[in-house]
Amino acid sequence: MDPKADPTPFLRGLYHLIPPDRIAHILESAGRPSVRVRRIPADAATRLVIALGLFADLSIPQVWRRLHPATDAPAPVESALAQTRARLGVRPLRELFDVIARPMPTHQTIGGSYRGWRLMAVDGTTLDLPDTEPNARTFGRPGTDRAEGAFPQLRLLALYELGTRAICGLVLKPGRRSEQVMAGPLIDRLEPGMLLIWDRGFFGFPLAERVIRAGAYLLARVPSGALLAPTRRLSDGSYLAELRPPRGHPGRGWWCG
Description:
Elements: H1 8-17, H2 20-29, H3 42-54, H4 60-67, H5 78-88, H6 91-100, E1 113-114, E2 117-128, H7 133-139, E3 153-161, E4 167-174, H8 179-182, H9 184-187, E5 194-198, H10 205-213, E6 217-220, E7 230-233, E8 239-243, E9 254-256
Parallel strand pairs: 2-5, 5-6
Antiparallel strand pairs: 1-2, 2-3, 3-4, 7-8, 8-9
């Protein structure tokens, strides 16, 4: 975001999406009530951490000033803001994300649905992290037999709406972790009436079965090496096949077309 751009629309959206009473409830349930005798109470720290993602090009004190433009008091020093973030911890932010990260389209959202199904997708990427020992220890470094990568790296996998691009679920793991292994908890967030779209790397019986058991539908690419023998050919040239469980799996087969 351009640091000179007017931040008002972004901040209005932030306060509309996450009203103060919702933050207060999450902090209370997480054991982090907002103590007003502190200069930086927990609810202000929560908004600061979220706003850091909106104003990634600004320093932490500059982001604080964007959130508190009307006060004449100087912004807290960066070390005080860092201590406040550490005191807040991860749990309130995780619980707040779980509450807020939900489907958002209305019947007027372009691309939000197809024939009554709400369109969802799951996809991932990798992100380089600051070169610190805690990050390297937690997430590891990419590399080859000859050398390690320059930066620690995490793998991010998200469930999101195609119409709004709203994130509805998120998993963060070390960069070496397989996306297929990470996908299960995201699929469990699906709801009846959703149509999930994914790439061929996720194709397989265990994940497809989880989609069906969630009451959702699946549109998936199939790897070229997958063997799906036709059980019934249709008039348009396509065919039905049965996706069978691997040997030893207790599930039954599912029909796919």
